[in-house]
Amino acid sequence: MKKRFIALFISLMAASAHANQCPDLLKFVKRKLNSQETVNLCESFQGKTLLFVNTASYCGFTEQFEGLEKLYSQYKDQDFVVLGFPSHDFNQEDEDEAKTAELCELTYGVEFPMFEPMPVRGDDADPLYRMLSEKSGTTPKWNFYKYLVNAQGEVVESYSSFTKPLDEDLVKTLEETLAANKS
To answer: Which residue among 22, 42, 59, 104 is the active-site one?
Structure first.
């Protein structure tokens, strides 16, 4: 009995230590786009380099989905993930999640994780985006604003909507961040 108690105590302590190691930016559970399934960001993405992007279906920058998917496909084997968060903050997202999912999957072939729509700026901003804004010192100015986050959960850089996903500077910083993770 005593051995079982000790084993249980040790496993609880290890789980607690693991949870404490999770970066603040990942201490969220988000619902997948057009689904009831939720994702614990810490369990799924801890230790990975991430690009957070607020998206919209009816924006002049919507074609960036194609570049985001290429970037994800090119670097996903190096523990890189693009995380898409639709937002209606700029009045360019469909109210129907099924239509948003259809645009992402069928029109642009998006395979990177897309999550529930959420406000990304102002008083109503989702806590995740509030934290991204605090840690980077900038809020999304428009759709397809990007935050590059390293494997330790630190914001490395933020990029305006005008910065395309395959932009030379963005890719260079991403590659440097991935290389630093290996050291």
So the answer is: 59
CATH topology assigned to domain 24-178: Glutaredoxin (3.40.30)
Task: For the chain, give percent helix, strand, coil, nearest 5.
Answer: 45, 15, 40
63: three-class secondary structure by DSSP: coil
Residue type, 58: Y
CB 115 within 8 A of CB 134: no
Tens-digit pLDDT string for the chain (183 aa): 555 444 444 444 444 444 469 999 999 999 999 999 999 999 999 999 999 999 999 999 999 999 999 999 999 999 999 999 999 988 888 888 889 988 888 888 899 999 999 999 999 999 999 999 999 999 999 999 999 999 999 999 999 999 999 999 999 999 999 999 887
Bridge partners of 157, per DSSP, are 148
CA 67 to mean position of chain CA atoms:
16
- Is 59 annotated as catalytic? yes
pTM of the model: 0.87
Phi/psi at 116 (5° precision): -55, 145
